[in-house]
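dumping the sequnces here before i forget
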Amino acid sequence: MSAASFPAPGARFVRLAETGRPAVRLSIDGQAVTAMQGDTLLVAVLSHQRSLRRSEFGDGARAGFCLMGACQDCWVWTESGQRLRACSTPAAEGMAVRTTPPASHWPVTPDLQMVQGREL
Amino acid sequence: MSGPRVIVVGTGPAGVRAAQALVEAGVRPIVVDEGNRAGGQVYRRQPEGFKRDYATLYGSEAAKAQALHRDFDALRDRIDYRGDTLAWNVSAQQLHTVHPASGETHDIDFDALIVCAGATDRLMPVTGWNQAGCYSLGASQIALKAQACAIGSRVVFMGSGPLLYLVASQYVKAGAKVEAVLDTSPAMPPLAALRGLLSRPQLLWRGLQLQAMLKRAGVALLKGITPVRIDSTPEQGVTGVTVRDARGRTRLFAADAVGLGWHLRAESQLADLARCEFEFEPLSRQWLPRIDEDGRSSTAGVYLAGDGVRILGADGAEAAGRLAALAALHDLQQGSERYQAEQGPLRATLATMDRFRQGLLLAFPWPHQQAAALPDEAVVCRCEAVSAGELRRCVRELGSQEVNRAKAFSRVGMGRCQGRFCGHGAAEVIAAEARIPIASVGRIRGQAPVKPIMMSTQEVAQ
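..and the predicted 3d for all of it:
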């Protein structure tokens, strides 16, 4: 299976070179997608869609801003609710990410696990 | 281990040259790198498995990038390298680090700390800059350099400074569609700017060549523009950029992505936490840590080098990193011969770079007047969508004439980026609304942790 070397419909980022890399498969909000080895999570998502998440403050969709780990605009979540900074996280085979934080519960971050462990 | 305990934070041009000078003197420094491959943002390496060569990636700077990477790789066995590690706080003679992936923390005692934390883009808010598809100029370049991507299929670059033309030309060369380059600086720089720019004639020439290349490629190149807004729809994000040109006509450029930036701003939070004194620099209208000619801060044992303290660019950072390390070695009585031999030439190099920097700032000024003209509904703080109107209300009704006070009332600068991208624009909005000099508005104080870390992170006694 080879990764697409043209922009997918609705994609934000456009691949200009290095398109011969092996594919990695991951899921975004439950949808199976293909990215390339060496992609950051941010590029993996934005080569399929136009945004990464919605602003918690009601001003619309966000797609990252600084790409160097300084602005924290590109947070996404794992299925278990762990927060990832998409611009500095490599996309890996089998990864499953969500562009919205889990709605029904607080994200199970290590700090929450610790608190829960103490209360048991 | 005997010998002085020296820590270098950062592995860009300044950090690598500092570490190298320490190793040459027989010191084994701890080197803290937030990334894991060294090079900094300017000479950022592409991931394993990418095949573009140095000339493609770094253009005229290929040899310097290659030398920096090679020299760092040769140091690896002679330094205590801590990759993927965030230096998140400094207390008295101690640096606090965390390895976010594992949660492992360290409190590291030091005799000398050399902070080479680099810079980010300096941003002035523009109406609509919070919409999906707006990126910094640095981000636009990282997308290309580190990921071989363009930020969109039709890109506009807007701002001012050398990076504006460099990134635009790199996009054109790589085959991206650049709709326009929109510069807020006037077409004719003042004479004083030329004097500074002529101190590095090759760089001036290269800048002119980049502009000529963009024109030949058919890219619309406008100078003296005033940003009006970044147009967008909820579904698409960015759809275009509206500006007023130098003759006052409204111009619209269709685009699905915008790269924005006005020079760089120093990542000076660690210096702040180390209680280094700051001073106001009128030319760039910002507060920067005060250092002596060799990089000593006002805090004993803390040295600052590279774009994290003075924006001199990569060449300047290499010289400043080496000089700061030599000064630290001298102060630690680890040998003064190299310091005495190289101090003169390194200082002279830095002085030339600083003349050039001043020329750049005069030719491509920070457009502070845009802050006063920003409509009330424009978002100043992207993190929490706080508008210019809300910030102005805090100035008018609550008397917030100092930026940290305004932050407390309005939340501008309190979000995830901790004021990195709104701080300078917000200060200008406050100064304009309160009709006071920008220097008296102050600067957003650095707070630990300098970037978000897990609440479970605990300091562990070593």
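The radius of gyration of chain B is 22 Å.
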